[in-house]
Amino acid sequence: MSGCRTTCPYCGVGCGVIADRQADGRVAITGDPEHPANRGRLCVKGAALGETLDLQGRLLWPMVGGRRVSWEQALDGVAARLGAVIAEHGPQSVAFYGSGQLLTEDYYVANKLMKGFIGSANMDTNSRLCMASAVVGYKRAFGEDVVPCSYEDIELADLVVLVGANAAWAHPVVYQRLAQAKQRRPEMRVVVIDPRRTATCDVADLHLPLRPGSDAGLFNGLLRYLAQQGAPGGEHLSGVADALQAAQQWTPAQVAEFCQLDERLVTQFFHWFAATARTVTLYSQGINQSSSGSDKCNAIINAHLLSGNIGAPGCGPFSITGQPNAMGGREVGGLANQLAAHMGFSPEEVDRVGRFWGSERVASQPGLLAVDLFRAVEEGQVKAIWIMGTNPVVSMPDADRVRQALRCCPLVIVSDVMLHTDTADCADVLLPALAWGEKDGTVTNSERRISRQRAFLPAPGEARADWWILSQVAQRMGFGAAFDYRHPAQIFREHAALSGFENDGQRAFNIRALATLSDAQWQQLAPVQWPVVETPQMGTARLYTDGRCWHPDGKARLLPVTPQLPRHQPNAAYPLVLNTGRIRDQWHTMTRTGKASRLMQHTPEPYCELHPQEAQRYGIQPGDLVRISAESGWMLVRAQIQPGQRPGSLFVPMHWNRQFSQQARADCLIPAVTDPHSGQPESKQARVRLQRWPAAWQGELFLRGEMPPPDSHYWSRLTADGLTHYVLAGLYAPDDWLAWLTQQYALDGVTFQQAQGDGLFHAVGWRQQQPMAALYVRDGQVQLDREAVYAAFAHPPQTAQQRLALLAGRSAQGVSDGRTICSCFAVGEQRIAEAIRQGCCSVAQLGERLQCGTNCGSCIPELKSLLQRQSASTAQRRAG
Ligand SMILES: Nc1nc2c(c(=O)[nH]1)N[C@H]1C(S)=C(S)[C@@H](COP(=O)(O)OP(=O)(O)OC[C@H]3O[C@@H](n4cnc5c(=O)[nH]c(N)nc54)[C@H](O)[C@@H]3O)O[C@H]1N2
Ligand SMILES: Nc1nc2c(c(=O)[nH]1)N[C@H]1C(S)=C(S)[C@@H](COP(=O)(O)OP(=O)(O)OC[C@H]3O[C@@H](n4cnc5c(=O)[nH]c(N)nc54)[C@H](O)[C@@H]3O)O[C@H]1N2
Ligand code: SF4
Ligand SMILES: [Mo]
């Protein structure tokens, strides 16, 4: 093999990747056939990694107050300013806010510095928005934060229940493994529990489109049903009677009413679950991101404990992690209510960690959880915050308030890889971190598998590893000996040793066998699942196989659950539920996936999915812009009418931010309502109102090079190579479009070709036969062939006919491919529709003809729905 074996930096599936630097400087990316998580598969985001490695927009040197400084100045300054704040206001006045995308080594050092040496536990992380409820659920049930399952269990199961998890888009390779297992064993059943019909429903035998936030009612009903069917229960469980008592009233009829489901669907699900020994329940943010998310996790675990579907191949409650190292963060103690290595703040644990670290200053109680942390910044109790590897101005609830808090904070330090993010734009100090491909360390995926991320690119500019930056600051704060790290392997060994320190099986997280790896062995470390206690090669596929838990009595606990609906229920002023989540081809706040033009094609603009019922009620046509408002903010996005959406609910992506759109940060609308046990925000159920936004004009603007957005009420940026592309709209049209354009951009020496018609204005600006700008305006949504315009910018038109085609916004051949469906091979909706018309009647045949769906498979659900739509319309035509 040539190339570097490493791990994908996106989702918690943790796929192995081989990165191969080519002679021309490009990096070819393929799936690692030997990595147990993916066995060579990749999704479209992983496959496009090579397109996100350029240095455009990167933060390449330290900056203070907007000016470049040397590392010496930056590190001395940070250490001195943090020291001064601590001296004056105490350790509780500083805070770290980290990320499940930091490597374990980075995370370990940040946690050690904050909790061990600064002596405050104000070290929280974006995992608070993501996995906090799942952690509470596992700890309450098992006495420790343990995910008992492996991916293999999903393939071995006879019933897979996906709850609040759109795996087809968010965990595509796990989804592919599921879909392929079901293809091999069609008797395997899949149930999807999600208020809306998602791409994941493509493999579902049963979809339960339940009322938002009502899952605990469903699982309480299941628990009652299981007890009635004589579920085994057992001696090794505690809390059974109380849990059953709490579930007693949850008859199928009661569940159907509470969850607004057809009772037959409810009993079908109960029956399947009760009748199937090998059942995996895979759950994610539809469960965790709730004001009662912890209880929902326990309601799911309760059902597995009572039925005995746990601790054996093919079964278990499987909380799938989002970020590449969400699990590693939990291991090092990255959350403010954990100390380190799965230890908390009991006096013995504080003492133990203190002895291990050689510090007498170890924090003795939990710190501020994310939402409270940013409140404390707002109120001035926290006077210095260091944000690493996360973008809270976009991802935290009540996001405008978070931005305001940072603007008022005396010291905001941001470690990032990009110069401009919505959060970096609020920083006093910017520290340039190494990005994926440049940094070295380990990550742990959803199935507890530790894998190496390896560097295969040189460090650009003056960027440095996060662990190095942290250690340098720690040394300058006077904690030198404890932070004398020279290599990430050294940090990893220390972390592994801490996990085994005074651990005779009381703590499940134990990787002591890895504490003696040499640098070279760490370099070569093969993926391994923790616990790793005997030898470095011997991992553990499943936990809880002997029915013993980590509670003092050794028993697993069922928890009595009282279902709660989302805290903010719709009312007269805000009658709709706002659901938020992920799209297939973007990663979070788009700082990396947003660089790849290929990943922009599938969903080029921020949007709102709504049911036809809402479209009719609010007078919204496909392609209209809509304004969604909540008490705390508003957003302006494109309407997408979807019969699979739940009536009364809207769905918006969580990704867009000020770097990509004027007003589309979903979290401005999310209230900072949290779960009382986990502190996790209710990011999936806000209440909002909807209005059609009366655009007087809409437009698309293409400009050669990097250009800022023009002055218009609505803009959204699309990524294209070598040019800037904006989709625009406004409430008032300027009198003179050319004047509007040339006032805003220095288009010296550019001559314009124009076309005007009924409610339409097109202009292309030329300089020396090269298109420099192209503007297309209409009184409705602009329809043009974007690919043709991109092509004309890349290869300037040679003939008058080609120039006229550009002015018309189409290719000289006049065919457009429509919306991209398959990003891997750039196959659009029109070509697929044409192939179907010509007789392709399966995904396989489409693949043979057009290649679509044959690489990562992410688009297969959509190919199927196009096939279905077309065959339905053919049938209709025949019937008509
Ligand atoms: N493409 C892509 N993949 C990603 C990410 C990304 O940014 N982009 N991010 C990664 C991260 S960090 C995470 S945490 C994961 C998240 O992975 P998922 O949790 O699967 O993704 P989401 O889209 O946030 O939400 C999942 C589903 O929850 C549903 N939902 C909303 N309310 C309810 C409810 O009340 N009950 C139920 N049962 N369902 C509900 C939504 O309709 C949505 O379809 O994805 C990871 N993978
Ligand atoms: N409404 C709503 N809000 C949500 C969610 C939702 O479903 N709905 N989901 C929540 C969830 S589950 C999550 S996980 C969060 C994610 O939200 P964030 O963590 O805020 O999003 P990212 O874009 O992943 O932010 C990572 C940042 O780190 C930078 N970065 C990348 N690599 C490195 C590195 O090696 N070192 C450093 N120092 N920086 C690096 C990136 O450029 C980027 O700015 O959003 C949460 N917010
Ligand atoms: S499923 Fe896709 S995003 Fe997730 S780790 Fe694998 S390749 Fe990366
Ligand atoms: Mo997440």
Notes on the structure:
Helices cover 32% and strands 19% of the residues. It is of the alpha/beta class. The chain folds into six domains: 4-51, 2-Layer Sandwich (Phosphorylase Kinase, domain 1); 63-126 and 325-485, Rossmann fold (3-Layer(aba) Sandwich), CATH 3.40.50.740; 131-319, Dimethylsulfoxide Reductase, domain 2; 576-689, Beta Barrel (Barwin-like endoglucanases); 697-808, no CATH class; 820-879, Arc Repressor Mutant, subunit A (Orthogonal Bundle), CATH 1.10.10.1100. The strands form eight sheets. It has a seven-stranded mixed sheet, sandwiched between helices. The longest helix is centred in the last third of the chain and has 20 residues, at 860-879. Molybdenum atom is lined by residues 130, 322-323. GO terms for molecular function: 4 iron, 4 sulfur cluster binding; metal ion binding; molybdopterin cofactor binding; oxidoreductase activity. Its cofactor is Mo-bis(molybdopterin guanine dinucleotide); [4Fe-4S] cluster. Belongs to the prokaryotic molybdopterin-containing oxidoreductase family. NasA/NapA/NarB subfamily.
The gist of it:
By secondary structure, the chain is α/β, with parallel strands linked by helices. It contains 29 helices and 34 strands.
Q: Secondary structure elements and their pairing?
A:
Layout lengths: L3 E4 L8 E6 L5 E5 L12 H4 L15 E2 L2 E2 L2 H19 L4 E5 L5 H15 L4 E3 L6 H11 L8 H6 L2 E5 L3 H4 L1 H13 L4 E5 L12 E3 L6 H14 L8 E2 L1 H8 L4 H8 L3 H13 L3 E5 L1 H4 L4 H15 L8 E4 L6 H7 L14 H11 L12 H9 L5 E5 L3 H4 L3 H10 L2 E6 L12 E4 L8 E4 L4 E5 L12 H14 L8 H13 L18 H6 L3 E2 L26 E2 L18 E6 L15 H4 L6 E4 L1 H6 L7 E5 L4 E8 L7 E5 L32 E8 L3 E8 L9 E7 L2 E8 L6 H8 L6 E7 L2 E8 L2 E9 L7 H9 L5 H9 L11 E3 L4 E2 H9 L5 H8 L9 H20 L1
Parallel strand pairs: 6-7, 6-14, 8-9, 8-12, 9-10, 11-20, 12-13, 14-15, 15-16, 21-25, 22-24
Antiparallel strand pairs: 1-2, 2-3, 4-5, 4-16, 17-18, 18-19, 21-26, 22-25, 23-24, 23-26, 27-29, 27-32, 28-29, 30-31, 31-32, 33-34
Helix pairs in contact: 2-19, 3-14, 3-19, 3-20, 4-13, 8-9, 8-10, 8-11, 8-13, 16-18, 27-29
